Amino acid sequence: MEEVEETAPAALRDHSVVYAPRIRDLLARNGKVFRIDATTVGVSHCDLMAEIVAARPVLPTERSVYKPAAGAEIPHDSATRTIRALGQDVTAAIRTPPPPTRALSGAWPYAATSYLRRWLYSSDPLPLSLLSKRGVTRSDALSRIVDRAVTIWPGSEAAGRSTALAELIRGASDPLDRKQAIAMYRRASATLCDGVAALAGNALWLLRQEQERDGARTPDRQTPRADLTAVLWETLRLLPPAWMLWRNGGDAYTGLHPEIRPEDNVALLPLLMHRHPDYWQDPLEFRPERWSGVADPEKTPAFMPFGFDGARCWAKHLVVPLAERLLATALDDGLVIRSPRQDAPVPLRSLLSVRFEASVGA
Ligand code: HEM
Asked: What domains, with CATH codes, occur in the chain?
């Protein structure tokens, strides 16, 4: 990882993270609408972002969870069934005791991703539970084998306690429906576990930096439980996992700004908007108190950790409570960041997440 130059502006060295060079370049840009390259325009202007999101619906190919599967678009009713099932599974998990916290030791955010998968989906009988196993999801060949196994034998209710996502596979009405339900299980569980792990990891890092700055001895444990919700909203502002939203082609947006041409792609940048001094007081300060008493944080201007109306996240109501439960478990049981002490890397990925090693106990 390249070193950040001594002269790097404060905005690039905030909270002791070292962003990948391309994120760093974006953070160094001054304007709210700027050209990133010959075919991409970056936008961090609050009103323009809202207009762009509202200008046209997201295309099926721009979607992540609900992009086409098994050669066909995902019907709206099966999309809503999936989100309902995901909600049932998250609610059930929040009510059950989590796995032992020592399983959170290791390289973050991966340790947390595996932990969440175990917590939420390990009750599914084989071969279903393999759909969310990290060792499998990282290999296309293994994923294909598991998909085939699940298609032939999606388990039986008698085989074990099952998640609602698994029930959708078993209850599929025809082969296409079943194939799509399998894709939905894999994508929804991955999006949930990866996103929540990134969010909780970013929060742990920001809390640690605050602790170092304050010089207190064990403030992690002193963080009042009620404040964790505010910690997570402040993390969603400063280190939002969904840091960039992509739109293919500028056709629908050309009338909205002279910089955007029909052939351009548009990168919407919540990461930049969330720390712009025109929108926020002391933008680089990690101040969870900002969110105390704020009934609906998403109504805050220039804040879009879960998108704007027109493409708002369907799972936003699940993400923060699950991340809060994970964070509370980690802090209660003394999970500590071991390394690095400073300058943790934030690589260029679709989810923004700080990389560090953590372990439980002294
Ligand atoms: C930490 C976790 C998550 C974050 C930070 C997040 C964030 C976002 C953001 C920023 C958008 C707007 C995208 C855009 O305008 O291009 C969005 C849209 C969406 N999200 Fe999430 N999301 C998370 C988890 C999930 C999960 C677990 C699911 C469902 C399984 C989900 C389903 C959706 C859907 C359906 C949309 C609407 C766009 C579409 O129709 O494809 N999200 N999310």
From this structure: 10-360 (1.10.630.10)
